[in-house]
Amino acid sequence: MKNQDQFWLKIIYIVSVIISAAVAFLILGPRPEGLEGSLDVSMLPIVNATLNGITTILLLYGYILIRQKKRQKHKTIMLSAFGTSGAFLISYIIYHWFKAGPKQYLGDFKEIYLFILLTHIVLAAIIIPLALITLYRGWTDSLPQHRKIAKITLPLWLYVSVTGVIIYYMLY
Questions:
Q1: 13 falls within a domain
Q2: Three-state SS for 35?
Q3: Is residue 109 a contact partner of residue 38, using CB atoms and an 8 Å limit?
Q4: pLDDT at 1
Q5: 78, 72, 75: which is closest to 59 by C-alpha?
Q6: Position 99 in a domain
Q7: Percentage of residues in the chain with pLDDT exceeding 70?
Q8: Closest to 125 in 3D by CA, of 52, 4, 18
Q9: Could you give the CA distance from residue 83 to residue 112 in angstroms, rounded to a whole number?
Q10: Average pLDDT, stretch 61-81?
Q11: Region 15-36: what's the mean pLDDT?
Q12: How many domains does the chain have?
């Protein structure tokens, strides 16, 4: 089992780096000529905020379920939270591919916004491998290891999903 764990952990780390690098490139990198505006993505920020909000609710509900020892329902809800996070990531990538650069904050609370944004970005990159490892540990019924990492993953994942909604409201 140890070799299988090492294999999957390497895959998780590789996938996490690729996702983080792709997102950074899509936001900050160059675009092919004529791509910006070729698809109307103006509704995707509200979709993204909604997906983050749903993820938050699912994470909290999943936590309640496991505290009630409803393990199978907990698994289903946490897989759903992972699914909404995945849908968010796909929508986010599509939005930034067809829209050049990040939106500028124009409000009165720039320092607060920048703090929330910076912590959100850093923790969003960290949550990718944490969520994948937590999911893997739960999926393989490595429950002591799952519980240990889930205690770290849950608050960070909640922070990322909640601050995603806050950033949306601050920008739009």
A1: no
A2: coil
A3: no
A4: 58
A5: 78
A6: yes
A7: 98
A8: 18
A9: 30
A10: 98
A11: 85
A12: 1
